[in-house]
């Protein structure tokens, strides 16, 4: 059961509702986000919700059987949108395209990428400055100094910055320079990091763990939400399977599943999902038809020279073509798929 409380409720009234629930066999956990206050009630399976719904201070009440209640569509039927200060919006009506290099390498690269994105009316640039690498000897990112020029060029051109945060201590130094914190697959179940991002006032793009189930993925999103941050994007990025022909197995099934079970926006990362440049565009287009609200794609002016993930990176010519086809596919989806 999930209860939405009236705004600016006194502490006494809150306590009395929690007490009332307790006497009826429920453990209620209070969640305060920037938007609202909720009581997450666990305990009895059956209850007459009309009784609790009529308690003073209760705004709305829902039966939510899903374990991850706040991210569940069982209480919030409408799709969640993410709004930025300047009215940029992540919503169901428009496909959000996030493009940029796997790693930020130097200022020249950022300038050229920003120029490309502007020409193509792309509003979000990705770029790692803290890089989780399989080998400790690989390039591990430019750190905050790289983020500063990455952010300056993006902001001067009205582009939002998406960058991965790998640990709690990086949140504060990154905060002023990013618009969306990315949580990578390796940190998808780093609950301390998720807790702290829940307290931060910036959207979080949460990737699915490479060996994580969809329930675990939703639980990770629930950690962020229950700490106060409702602005979460779920991003499918491929999972580990027995198949070795490509880097990961892109779980396209996850897209309609997540859209069905959760009200949060769902993105697809076909670059990591398949890991092979020529397959990125078809998997991106398939993701849109499967219902994705956005795509995250790695691009580079010269992929063979990229410091990381060059094999799955599109050059600007391929990226331009992908953007056009993605937009056409989105139009097609709007015509064909009645939601
Ligand atoms: C990335 O986006 O560059 C990245 C490291 O992704 P993932 O965490 O999905 O591997
Ligand atoms: Mn990468």
Written overview of the protein:
The strands form three sheets. The protein has an eight-stranded parallel barrel, surrounded by five helices. Strands 2-3-1-4 form a four-stranded antiparallel sheet. The protein has a two-stranded antiparallel sheet with strand order 5-6. Helix 3 runs parallel beside helix 4 (144-156), helix 6 crosses helix 7 and helix 10 packs parallel to helix 11 (316-336). The chain has helices at residues 11-23, 49-53, 107-119, 144-156, 168-175, 191-199, 214-226, 254-261, 270-274, 277-290, 316-336; strands at residues 2-5, 26-32, 37-43, 58-62, 82-83, 89-90, 96-100, 124-126, 160-164, 180-183, 204-207, 232-236, 266-268, 294-298. The chain has two domains: 2-62, Alpha-Beta Plaits; 82-336, TIM Barrel, CATH 3.20.20.70. The two termini are 26 Å apart. Helix content is 36%, strand content 18%. The radius of gyration is 21 Å and the shape is globular. It has 339 residues and is of the alpha/beta class. The structure holds phosphoenolpyruvate (PEP) and manganese (II) ion. Phosphoenolpyruvate binds next to loops.
Give a topology summary:
Elements lengths: L1 E4 L5 H13 L2 E7 L4 E7 L5 H5 L4 E5 L19 E2 L5 E2 L5 E5 L6 H13 L4 E3 L17 H13 L3 E5 L3 H8 L4 E4 L7 H9 L4 E4 L6 H13 L5 E5 L17 H8 L4 E3 L1 H5 L2 H14 L3 E5 L17 H21 L3
Parallel strand pairs: 7-8, 7-14, 8-9, 9-10, 10-11, 11-12, 12-13, 13-14
Antiparallel strand pairs: 1-3, 1-4, 2-3, 5-6
Helix pairs in contact: 3-4, 6-7, 10-11
The structure holds phosphoenolpyruvate (PEP) and manganese (II) ion.
Manganese (II) ion binds next to loops.
């Amino acid at each position: 059961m999930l209860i939405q409380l009236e705004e600016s409720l006194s502490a006494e009234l809150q306590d009395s509702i929690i007490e009332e629930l307790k006497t009826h066999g429920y453990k209620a956990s209070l969640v305060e986000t920037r938007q609202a206050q909720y009581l997450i009630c666990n305990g009895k399976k059956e209850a007459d919700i009309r009784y609790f719904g009529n308690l003073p201070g209760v705004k709305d009440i829902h039966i939510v059987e899903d374990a991850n209640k706040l991210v569940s569509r069982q209480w919030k039927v409408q799709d969640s949108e993410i709004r930025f200060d300047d009215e940029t919006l992540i919503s169901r009506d428009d496909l959000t395209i996030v493009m940029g290099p796997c790693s930020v390498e130097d200022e020249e690269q950022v300038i050229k990428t920003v120029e490309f994105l502007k020409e193509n009316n792309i509003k979000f640039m990705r770029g790692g400055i803290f890089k989780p690498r399989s080998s400790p000897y690989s390039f591990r990112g430019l750190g905050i100094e790289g983020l500063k020029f990455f952010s300056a060029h993006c902001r001067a051109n009205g582009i939002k910055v998406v960058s991965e945060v790998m640990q709690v201590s990086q949140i504060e130094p990154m905060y002023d320079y990013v618009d969306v914190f990315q949580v990578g697959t390796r940190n998808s179940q780093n609950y301390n990091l998720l807790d702290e991002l829940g307290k931060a006032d910036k959207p979080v793009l949460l990737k699915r763990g490479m060996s994580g189930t969809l329930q675990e993925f939703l639980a990770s999103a629930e950690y962020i939400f229950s700490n106060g941050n409702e602005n979460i994007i779920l991003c499918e990025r491929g999972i580990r399977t027995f198949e070795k022909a490509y880097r990961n197995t892109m779980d396209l099934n996850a897209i309609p599943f997540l859209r069905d079970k959760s009200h949060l926006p769902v993105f697809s990362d076909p670059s990591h999902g398949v890991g092979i440049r020529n397959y990125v565009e078809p998997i991106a287009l398939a993701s849109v038809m499967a219902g994705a609200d956005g795509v995250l794609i790695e691009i580079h002016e010269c992929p063979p020279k990229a410091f990381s993930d060059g094999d799955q990176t599109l050059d600007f010519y391929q990226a331009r073509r992908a953007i056009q086809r993605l937009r056409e596919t989105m139009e097609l989806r709007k015509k064909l798929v009645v939601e």
